[in-house]
Task: inverse folding
C-alpha cells in the first residue's frame, strides 16, 4: 500500500490543489490531504471549515481522504505509514522555500521522501491568497475554485465580512 500525504493550509482549497491531488491519485494507492492547523498564518477559515471544504471536493476520488494535523509533518507522515509527502511547485519563486523544507524534513526523517508536482499550466498563477483577494474585492472566482469553496468565500467575505 503506497500512501502519500499532501500537506498544506488549504485556506481555501483551489483548483490548483485539486489538480495536484488528482495527479497524485495516479501514483499512490492512498492520498491523504492533510490540513495544517497553521494558526500563525491567521487563516480565513477555521481548521474544521478547511477540512470540510476539502472533503466536499474530493468525494468523487475514491483513494483520497482528508485529515488535519498539528505539529511535525514527518511525525504525522510516520503515524499514517506514508512513504512520501507531496508539495506543489508553481514557479521558481516556490522553489527556494520548498527546497529548504524538503531537506529539513529529510534531516528529521530519512524514510519520508518529498515529491514535487507541477499543476496544469493554467493553474500555475493560482494561490489561495490571490483567490481570497479577488473574492474580497467582489471578483468572480468560479474559474479558480470548486463551487462549494466559491460559496464559502462569498458567504465569508462578501455577505458577512468580518
Ligand atoms: P502552505 O501554507 O503549506 O504553503 P498551501 O495551501 O498554500 O499551504 O499550499 C499547499 C501546497 O500546495 C504547497 O506545496 C503549495 O506550493 C501547493 N500549491 C498551492 N497552490 C498551488 C497551485 N495553484 N498549483 C500547484 N500547487 C499549489
Result:
Amino acid at each position: 500500500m503506497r500512501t502519500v500525504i499532501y500537506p498544506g493550509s488549504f485556506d481555501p482549497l483551489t483548483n490548483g490543489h485539486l489538480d495536484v491531488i488528482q495527479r497524485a491519485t495516479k501514483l499512490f494507492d492512498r492520498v491523504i490531504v492533510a490540513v495544517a492547523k497553521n494558526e500563525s498564518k491567521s487563516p480565513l477559515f477555521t481548521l474544521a471549515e478547511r477540512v470540510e471544504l476539502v472533503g466536499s471536493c474530493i468525494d468523487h476520488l475514491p483513494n483520497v481522504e482528508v485529515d488535519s494535523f498539528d505539529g511535525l509533518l514527518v511525525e504525522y507522515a510516520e503515524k499514517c505509514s506514508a512513504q512520501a509527502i507531496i508539495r506543489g511547485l508553481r514557479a521558481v519563486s516556490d522553489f527556494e522555500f520548498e527546497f529548504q523544507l524538503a531537506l529539513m524534513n529529510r534531516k528529521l526523517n530519512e524514510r519520508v521522501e518529498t515529491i514535487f508536482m507541477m499543476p496544469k499550466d493554467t493553474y500555475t498563477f493560482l494561490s489561495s491568497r490571490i483567490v481570497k483577494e479577488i473574492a474580497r474585492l467582489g471578483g468572480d472566482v468560479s474559474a479558480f475554485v470548486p463551487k462549494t469553496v466559491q460559496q464559502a468565500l462569498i458567504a465569508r467575505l462578501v455577505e458577512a465580512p468580518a
